[in-house]
Design the sequence.
């Protein structure tokens, strides 16, 4: 019988960390959770779940704990909010880490790649969530009853152009376009805040689209674009016609519920190949 490798889960916010914990419990895979304070859901762990809560500034100590727990594979999953000053006060190991990476910490991708390197220096292997739960990847094509019309297709094309350049600059993953006009691009605030902001800039008339793409240089193991029921709800509140997301390179939380909600409120959700819109 094949013994499953022990999994370390570095958990931020959102629903996917809990799905991963349940996946491990059901499959019998041994695991240990590092839950990030102020980010991971409070009910993610209990006395029956092997875990430790840490601040972002205690990352170095957390990585050592994973090594001490004899973790072999590590998945980093979930959203991380902008940390407070207290969150960032580093322990000695994390101070050494920031001193070592220097200017590589200036962008999201740089610091995440450095974190991967630091974890793997402890003898562990960083995996993408899709390597553990492949069903979370967005499928290519229309995911519900509603399809993008001609105007929406043009808006998707424009958003793909902008999102690709945005990603190359390591700024964000999401763009909102209406009638060819870029209403907003994602920065540090995240997709929900982007959608709220764009609601104030919508033109009269036909809806608009939210497009989320993996950055061109982005490691598939970390920080993949994600949509879920909340994304559908926010897009509807903003007055958009639909959502297009990078097929095979993005995650979907509770696909069945996303499709059900989108069908009910009249939005399309589609998994796209950006290359199809660059021709």
Sequence:
């Amino acid at each position: 019988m094949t013994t499953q490798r022990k999994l370390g889960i570095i958990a931020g916010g959102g629903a996917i960390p809990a799905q991963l914990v349940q996946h491990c419990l059901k499959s019998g895979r041994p695991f240990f959770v590092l839950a990030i304070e102020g980010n991971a859901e409070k009910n993610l762990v209990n006395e029956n779940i092997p875990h430790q809560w840490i601040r972002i500034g205690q990352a170095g100590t957390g990585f050592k704990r994973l090594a001490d727990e004899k973790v072999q594979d590590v998945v980093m999953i979930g959203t991380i909010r902008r940390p407070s000053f207290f969150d960032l006060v580093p322990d000695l190991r994390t101070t050494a880490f920031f001193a070592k990476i220097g200017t590589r910490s200036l962008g999201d991708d740089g610091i995440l790649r450095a974190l991967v390197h630091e974890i793997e220096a402890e003898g562990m292997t960083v995996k993408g969530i899709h390597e553990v739960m492949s069903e979370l990847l967005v499928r290519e094509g229309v995911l519900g009853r509603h399809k993008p019309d001609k105007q929406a297709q043009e808006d998707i094309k424009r958003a793909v152009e902008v999102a690709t350049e945005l990603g190359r600059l390591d700024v964000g993953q999401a763009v909102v376009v209406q009638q060819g006009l870029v209403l907003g691009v994602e920065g540090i605030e995240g997709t929900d805040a982007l959608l709220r902001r764009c609601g104030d800039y919508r033109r009269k008339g036909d809806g608009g689209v939210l497009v989320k793409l993996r950055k061109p240089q982005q490691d598939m193991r970390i920080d993949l674009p994600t949509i879920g029921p909340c994304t559908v709800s926010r897009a509807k509140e903003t007055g958009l016609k639909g959502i297009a997301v990078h097929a095979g390179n993005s995650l979907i939380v509770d696909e069945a519920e996303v499709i059900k909600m989108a069908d009910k409120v009249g939005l399309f959700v589609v998994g796209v190949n950006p290359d199809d819109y660059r021709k």
Q: What stands out?
A: The chain has two domains: 7-132, 137-277. Residues 227 and 252 are 5 Å apart (CA to CA). The two ends are 49 Å apart (CA to CA). The chain has a mean pLDDT of 88.
